[in-house]
Amino acid sequence: MTVFKKTMLNLSFAVFGFSVVLVILAFAFMNSLYYEIKAVGLSNTAKTLMAAIGEDRITEIFTTNKNAPAPDISLPVSAAGAYRLTLIDPAGNVLWDSHVAGGHVNHIDREEITSALEGREGSIRRYSISTGTERIYCALPVFDKENKTIGVFRLSFAIPGFGVRVSSIILPFFIFAFILAAAAFCAIFAFSRSLSISFSRLVKIAQTGASLLSDPDAMEDDVVDFTGLEKALRAITGELNYRFEQARAEGCRLEAILNGMSEAVFAMDSNLVLHLVNPRARELFNLGQRDIHSLSLLEATHSTELEEAAKKALTGGKPLEIELTFHTGAEQYFQVFAAPLGASQPVGLNNGVVLVLQEITRLVKLERIRKDFVANVSHELRTPIQLIKGFSETVLDSLADANQRFDDSEAKEKIFHYMEIIRKNVDNMENLTNDLLVLAGLENDGSNIHNSKKQKLFSLLAEAVSLVELQAKRKQTEITINCPEDLEAKLYGSLIIQAMINLIDNGIKYSSQKSKIWVNARIENEELTLEVLDKGMGISSEHLERIFERFYRVDRARSREAGGTGLGLSIVRHIALLHGGKAEVESHAGEGSVFRIRIPHPQN
Predict the structure, then answer these.
(1) Which residues pair with 322 in a beta bridge?
(2) Based on the domain organization, do 49 and 111 belong to the same domain?
(3) In the structure, what pLDDT confidence band is assigned to residue 270 with cuts at 50, 70 and 90?
């Protein structure tokens, strides 16, 4: 069924229903108006008739002995047939009735009688049992000379049936209603027809798109109000076509980018069912030309690690980054980036997730070569450095024992000076190689150290302080330990001692004579916090971000003079990372520094 036919049918039913309701309301109003007019007219007639009979005559009837013969009342000829007059005493007994001779029932319970006996005019419409017709009653009170109610003067009128009352006007009324309905139907037909033509044109525009913009009948609309709508629809159609072409071009560009990427890309829905895979991903996981739209991520990659990463990104609503190793013949290392689609929505309402796998096998191998190089060089340098150191000490000791062999005291002084320089630099080289070895071990994830175990922090801190006690005495530096004796944590004890030695040693080196250093340990917010606080020279704010980088020195000349290698704080940071924690610094130039190591320490 077309829109036009539906409109015609609905409007026809609406007109018919409206006409029926209008007729019913008109008849109801006419019926109500008829009763109201008749009631008012009956009241006026009763008062007129009561005046015509005479109040004295009516009073005499009610005051006469009840056993006296029925009174003789003559009604006017005009009222004799249409109206029924009834006289009723205060007890409800009928004294006289113009239409019914005898057998009257008591009327005390009649509503109009009750109102009249109370001194008010009563009027009501009801069915009369005695006459068998529906009548309108009007009752007037009758008063004596003392203004007391002595009876009721009631007049009633028979109401003809509804059909009888409207029979004279029903035919013209229906003729008028039919003409009105026909006129409304014709008007609706014409309007609906114009709407149908306009809608047909709009539908045609929507179906054929912007090609109708040059249609010669484009603006010849039967309904002027649809001209603006048609223009807007044509403009929207053109805009949609333009945007569709843009989206298609953008899709082609995106496809070209994905096809040219060296990274593997997977896009999937919230159930981890794939809907986009680029050629690099197909090649990496041997997917060939398989239809990926029916595959889940696990079925396509056979990697539970990738599936777990996608689930974490999907449920967490935040991007994440992990490293994975795939054993496909040779070891391959990948940096995996997982990001949820629609990350701005509430958690649990994301539409899917995207995985990007970037191969870092070459970088991992280069890093491994670099670490091996550092370790090998350190091992190769250690032996000759130790030999140089040993022989320089031997020469110095020999010169001290055989001073008498040298007659030239100035030459002897120079030899001692030069040998002292050799020994000092050899010490620096030894410290450097030792730090490089420690750093290489830490960068290999501590593979050369024992497993961590629960240890008392106080004993570890005390051991670290004892190992730097000689340097502290030289500068008369006081070291105070603040740590509960029963505080325990699961740690790599030797590494914690190494880290605390580095921090305390820095505090001693860069503090003035007779200074103080505090070594603190405590548990706060489920973290083990180790602190070394000094009142030394401090660090400017521009150096704080790079202070933990290897070989970075705030004051290079002073650091070398103090015997620093530039690796101490880098070792501290790696030790903190090995424990799953972090290293941080808080310092101001000229006000001292606070170095902290924070290590997770759950209470449960």
Answers:
(1) 336
(2) yes
(3) confident
Tokens matching residue 156: 């009633």
Q: Nearest-CA neighbor of 157 among 139, 138, 140, 136?
A: 136
Q: Which residue has the tokens 């609905």?
A: 10
Residue 264 bridge partners (DSSP): 357
Domain membership of residue 292 (yes or no) is yes
Q: How confident is the model at residue 598 (pLDDT cuts 50, 70, 90)?
A: very high
The tokens for 252 are 């082609």
Q: DSSP character for 99?
A: S
Element (H, E) at 590: none
pLDDT in tens, 379-419: 666 766 777 777 777 777 766 665 545 555 666 676 677 67
Whether 249 maps to a domain, the answer reads: no
What pTM was computed for the model? 0.41
Average pLDDT over the chain, rounded to an integer:
78
User: Following DSSP, what letter does each residue of 25-88 receive, concatenated?
Assistant: HHHHHHHHHHHHHHHHHHHHHHHHHHHHH-HHHHHHHHHS-TTSPPP--PPPHHHHTTEEEEEE
Which of 243, 270, 288 lies at the terminal end of a domain, its last residue?
Answer: 243
If 0-12 CB within 10 Å is exposed, 13-18 middle and 19+ buried, where does residue 417 land?
exposed
Mark out the alpha helices in 444-475 (DSSP H runs).
457-467, 469-474
Position 151 in a domain: yes
Does 588 map to a domain? yes
Q: What is the mean pLDDT of residues 48-58?
A: 82
Question: Are 315 and 345 members of one domain?
Answer: yes
| Number of domains within the chain | 5
497 shares a domain with 379: no
Can you give the residue range of the structural domain that contains 465? 452-600
In this structure, are residues 389 and 426 in contact, taking their beta carbons and an 8 Å threshold?
Answer: yes
